[in-house]
Amino acid sequence: MFSNIKLNIIIFFISTLAYSVHAQITPRSLFNQSTSANDLSLPVETTLIAEANYPQMMLLKPNGEGPFPAIVLGHQCGGLVFSKSNPQIANWSMLQWAKDFQQSGYVVLLLDFMGPRGAQQLCQGPQNGVTLGRVVKDFYQAASHIRKLPYVSPEKVAFVGFSQGAFIALFNNSKAVRQEFSQNRGFDAYVSFYPPCRIPSMGPEKILLDVVQKDVEKPHLLLLGGADIESPASDCQELLTPVKTTGKPIQIHVYQDETHCWDCKSLNGFSKPGRLGTVTYRYSEAATKDSFERTKSFLADSLKLN
């Protein structure tokens, strides 16, 4: 009988053969997709924390006049609501992150780049015009929007993304992508929770697309799961370590025993097919708490909050 380690090695080897060709997603290809759906209507009114009781697009702020640092949160490919027929099957973890950061002194924009456009999920590719390039543009627009709020410190705006939101952050933190989208600036710091640094192409050609851009501009923290076979930590380490050694402001932390979506309490035990075998999510309270503290510490340093 094979050990789990040997079995995972065999699965990885077979999967690597199946996707033997790599390609790079380019700034131009992203820009060409950026008008595939209409712009989002971003909130200008804040939601009272006592009324923030369902995961949806919302703007939260601490008490007081500010100015406060700000965070735009990017959700996973399943969106904020997992089932139209059962509203209780929702992304409660993203709502909790929004509340936690608000209570830590941040203005928070929980961005919903799927729901307003009628997209149910993006895990197998675009829906209703919600393409990668369109979402990259959404976050540039969100950065500009939140900087204009009178209670936000415009030099202290961060992007914190999870899975799909996490690899969108890798695009946004690229000089070439920013220039392709004619943006004067992006965010001031980035955090990516369990990002896929390579994604399979949607066509029959079985190409792995490299998400990582080498021209990182701003401080970027990546939090990865060592037991994640949906978005393997090894992909990010292989692609980002050479970039980091050139002096780019990248930090990487691996939770060796954690799976993809370790913070997704409502998805604990959820399984689905993945590129490297069956993916099962395991909620980890310890990793969730630690990743929150690491994110706060990283942002305090990167945004010069101390």
What features would you describe in this structure?
The protein is α/β, with parallel strands linked by helices and 306 residues long. The termini are far apart. It has helices at residues 4-18, 27-32, 92-103, 132-147, 164-172, 175-180, 233-245, 285-302, and strands spanning 21-24, 58-60, 68-74, 107-111, 152-162, 189-193, 198-200, 207-210, 220-225, 250-255, 271-274, 277-280. Helix 3 links the parallel strand 3 (68-74) and strand 4 (107-111).
Could you give a quick summary of the protein structure above?
By secondary structure, this protein is of the alpha/beta class. The protein has eight helices and twelve strands. Helix 4 packs across helix 5 (164-172).
Which terms would index this structure?
12 strands, 7-stranded mixed beta sheet, globular, 3-stranded mixed beta sheet, 306 residues, alpha/beta
Instruction: Give the quaternary arrangement of the chains.
Output: single chain
Q: What's the helix count? A: 8
What can be said about the biggest beta sheet?
7 strands, mixed
Overall SS class: alpha/beta
Helices and strands, in order, run as: HEHEEHEHEHHEEEEHEEEH
Give the tally of β-strands: 12
Estimated radius of gyration: 18 Å
Side by side, the strands of the main sheet go 2-4-3-5-6-9-10
Low-confidence stretches: 1-17
Through-space gap between termini: 54 Å
Percent of sequence in beta strands: 15-25%
Mean pLDDT across every amino acid position: 90
Shape: globular
Helix amount, in percent?
Answer: 25-40%
